[in-house]
Specification:
Blueprint (H helix, E strand, L loop, with lengths): L9 E3 L1 H6 L2 E8 L2 E3 L4 E3 L4 E9 L7 E15 L6 E16 L7 E5 L2 E6 L3 E3 L1 H10 L29 H21 L1
Parallel strand pairs: 7-9
Antiparallel strand pairs: 1-10, 2-5, 3-4, 5-6, 6-7, 8-9
Length: 186
């Protein structure tokens, strides 16, 4: 069975480079968001849309790209490690400059502004979409507000089983805290 090729999100800017104006594109990313060294799994599609407008100026090869991407990342619950969907919505804007011949996007700084250089009319949007999505990921998620987490003794998911260790852990902790408090009173 052949795996389906994962399309790379892109937008063709040939007409804009020649004539000016603006262009839009939208699509969905399924399965995962690709970063250089990892993948962020998705629950359902991540929907994206971008618009690019040629800016009038000295060189005539500057463009303003703005867009958004929204989807549900699959993360681990911070207490029990269960797979948990996390809603992500990211808005982004970039100043682009066309420089024929560049193989990949390159970032430069000019007048304290970051400019992304691109060298092919088919602008690969995947790095821009992936970065925007990753930057908006929450640090942690909970599978539910009252998640009980994992047992510190045996590692059981306390949302699913009562292993009996939890009460012992608390009573021992309470005894130690009580001793500490009694010592502070003296």
């Amino acid at each position: 069975m052949k795996m389906k090729q994962r399309p790379i999100p892109s937008i063709n800017l040939s007409r804009l480079i020649r004539e000016g104006g603006s262009a839009t594109a939208k699509d969905e990313i399924w399965d995962y968001i690709a970063l250089p060294n990892e993948r962020i799994p998705l629950v359902g599609p991540a929907v994206w849309r971008v618009s690019v407008a040629k800016m009038e100026g000295e060189g005539g090869l500057d463009f303003w790209l703005s867009g958004e991407i929204a989807g549900n990342a699959l993360m681990e619950c911070r207490r029990c490690l269960a797979p948990t969907p996390a809603a992500v919505r990211a808005h982004f804007q970039y100043l682009l400059r066309y420089q024929s011949g560049l193989a990949h996007l390159e970032a430069i700084e000019e007048n304290e502004e970051e400019i992304l250089l691109f060298g092919h009319p088919d602008l690969d949007l995947e790095p821009l979409l992936s970065e925007a999505f990753a930057l908006e990921l929450p640090y942690t998620v909970l599978c539910k507000e009252d998640c009980k987490g994992l047992c510190p003794v045996c590692g059981a998911n306390l949302n699913e089983v009562d292993c009996g260790h939890q009460a012992k852990t608390h009573s021992r902790l309470e005894a130690e805290l009580s001793k500490l408090l009694d010592g502070l009173k003296d």
